[in-house]
Structure prediction request, 1019 residues.
Amino acid sequence: MAITEEPPLELEAGDPLPEYAEQPLGVLTRPSGNTGIASWLFTVDHKRIGIMYGVFAMFFFLIGGLEALAIRIQLAVPGNDFLSAETYNQVFTTHGVTMIFLVIMPLAAAFANYLIPLQIGARDVAFPRMNALSLWVWFFGGLFLCSSVIIGGWWENAPDGGWFNYAPNHGVAFSPSKGIDFYAIGLQITGIGSLVSAVNLIVTCLNMRAKGMTLFRMPVLTWMLLITQFLLLFAVPVITVALFFLMFDRLYDANFFNPDAGSDPLLWQHLFWIFGHPEVYILILPSFGIISEVIPVFSRKPIFGYKVMVFSGIAIGFMGWGVWAHHMFVSGLGPISVTAFSMSTMLIAVPTGVKIFNWLATMLGGRLKFNTAMLFAVGVVSMFTIGGLSGVTHAVAPADTQQTDTYYIVAHFHYVIFGGALLGIFAGFYFWWPKAFGYKLNERWGKWNFWLQIVGFNLTFGPMHILGLQGMSRRIDTYSEGFGFELWNLVASVGAFVIFLGVLIFVINIFVSQRQAKHLPPVGPDPWDARGLEWMTASPTPEHNFDEEIEVQQVDEFWFRKYDIDDDGTVHRIATGDEVAQPGTATGVHLPAPSYWPMVLAAGLPFIGYGLIYNLWLCVLGGLLVAAGSFGWVFEPADDPDAHHGGHDDHGDHDDDPDTDPEAAAALDAPEGADDVAIESEEAPVG
Amino acid sequence: MVDSEVLDEQAVEAADASHSAKVGDHQPGSTGISNQKLAMWAFLGSECLLFGGLISGYLLYRNNNQDGPAAAEIFDIPFTSVSSFVLLMSSLTMVLALSAITRGDHPRTRLWILTTALLGAVFIGGQVYEFTSFYREGLGYTTSPFSSAFFTLTGFHGVHVSMGIVMLMSLYFSSVRGKLKTENAETVEIVGLYWHFVDVVWIFIFTVVYLMAKGI
Amino acid sequence: MSSETLSDTVEAGMHDADHHDADHHHHPSDRKYVGIAIGLAIITAVEVLTFYVDFGPLFIPSLLLMMFVKFYYVCGWFMHLKLDSPMFTKFFVAGLVLAAGVYVVMLSASQLWDNI
Prediction:
């Protein structure tokens, strides 16, 4: 919000740099430079932010994975004492919270940040500094949550109420450690990150599209990510209310969930699941989007029923708000509520089923190429179907009454979250790796990665269906001999280590492939003969994304620039990807300058969190950081005069006066506007 | 969620429009509207769910006052009516500030911004007074589910008003320093959107929480 | 009485708006804003009146009606929803409708309405 000085949008070639006579209030200039650690820490480039989301999420994935292994070691044999009951409660809770909020959601955010601007042909997101803010807020919130494991003793203070953390068990009376305070505050912090990023990406999708890129020409991935952001926008405040109530109950003895004062513990369940069910779609829709990009490319066919695909995504987004109470069938809701929610839950299976048939129809009759990305995508279609079918059995309230809180539920949601969301994200890794890093991941290692993961996954979670139907409760730290649980628990534990091996091979593959790539020719802009705009620029993506704005005329624009379809329906190649793609060599493109302040502002929040739990003086420190960050943000010079201003030799085809050239103005205005958001973006997270 | 078909139509229109001269427009985007304003509206849409949750929590517990005072006993309707009126009028001064800066009348912009902030501060002062007197009359934060829900709801609203005051004051000082120019009118408009939203929430709270306490 | 005041001022504002130049989304005139504010103040006075005078069975319906009228005028005119891009209205209404929907269902499931 232009309190800061506005430099001219573009410099005429040969013009002197503008004078920045007054640095407002003498604050720091903006950081500059393209290399080194600082260029990552203070970056506002959506691609670097996307990559950092991915790297940090993989770090949390390691933590969550080790917790999963600890759970499976404990349950491998009956009567085990590898973990105490208290520790076990904390381990499964942090496993769940980490995997959902610190792994799957940010991995989706990684793809959203990296790919949305590329797929819609934009220079960057609408608000680059807010984008950096959401990354750091989420990351510091994640560290805050994880720090509960070590602060105040090893596994003494971690949350122990399960990821849905029901009342009244989450009260101080039943959970006297600080763990649930960490849960309540940590999730609020990460929620701020999600909210900021949702606002940012919604505006980006709606307002930053290239010329001709109408909403119904956007790739399915961008569509699914847009729906995800809407779900976040409206779901995050609901959990925020619940977490505030919980925090006030625990820290200040409020009476929101206190049964002694006649409060209603179901209030928590309602608020949690009003958030929680859209959250399920927040986890899965990005993966649906990813495989909707991967499957057409490796089937050599366009996606079957593009509009139906989009509309079924929208339908899922809508209907996801009307099914939350199916998580509460055994809480005594009453027959009317149970019936209504049972029916709405069965109904939501329809648009999901439509998607599955669309993927099958895309593959039907295609020239299938089963490389690793495609294998993972097909893995999603098959594994998610299993998870979806067991989900339909929960919609039937009498059956659900039997299944509630058994391992059948654990099996179900791992089939949808691991089998659906995570495998899809791996498909995305293999597919877009060359675009982000300029080399392909090795296929041999990749196939080991896939097969170990899919076999290990089915070994781990398949038997849990049986265990659950046999009556094994979830969240119990051990079990006795003689109930018939021994065999399948052991199989599940072995499977967990197979998964771990699979993921390890993925990590090894990164390094192996990077080393091999040095002896291979560069992958070029379009290694898969793909369809979306993101392949229309060099690999790895240059900092400015596109040399010039692309004018879009149809869905799969890039593909139609490479191929022509005759009247009789035969397809001819008219150009190679390399010919069509932009070289990515433009210089002097005006880009938003890096900024210190998103990180400073974000760093204040965990201190406020620690302060609320331990000592209010820390809140003062945190508050000062937030205030300094906001102040610096607002009064930051709009741009660093030294950065990214070369000669004016880009935009070769419209080098007339930018003020009269709407196209150039539009292309350049975008990142520029981002620096204008100061005040409301500073306030947005606080709400 | 947004009606996507209509969005699409707009997008097509906007795409056509972007061929014609867009120069001088504030933030030309695919939809022809400014990024900042769209972001603020998205945020306000999200805030509806936040206040909806807080108000629902209050409605659920409004009659559960345990041994403490009940809502109808403790509310001072004449007093709250005055502070509600003050907040309502601050919406008027806010919109007058926007009107002034659109005309390029900067002294009057500053006057109205400052008046708005002052009216907001009066409202907050009234809330502090109200909370104190409730506390003296035996309605503490932990007294009952009713008291917790009441203080949380109105407290959240008060925090929103206070943040609005901070935003208004930074606008005021920018204007004093000459940095809030006529072409930045949209900044004032966006802060105004936030301010009016907070007022609208209070219109809801005043009716549902205070005035209806007598009858339900 | 109040609604007449409002509709008068609304129409007056429409005419004013036509004369404004096109860049600034047809902001209404100050007079019109003041007129709306007077209308809102009158409604508020009637609202407060319900505290002193017994409206009988109309108590809650009339309060809700007046609340919605105030809500409508602040959002429509002070926040310019009536004059601005319909996309903003959609975002806001989406939030309002969603909030109303989920929370009313939640409160119904908690048997809130039984003890009114």
Observations:
- Residues 47 and 86 of chain B are 23 Å apart (CA to CA).
- Chain B has two domains: 1-33, 34-214.
- Chain B touches chain A through 67 residues (CB under 8 Å).
- Chain B has seven helices and no strands.
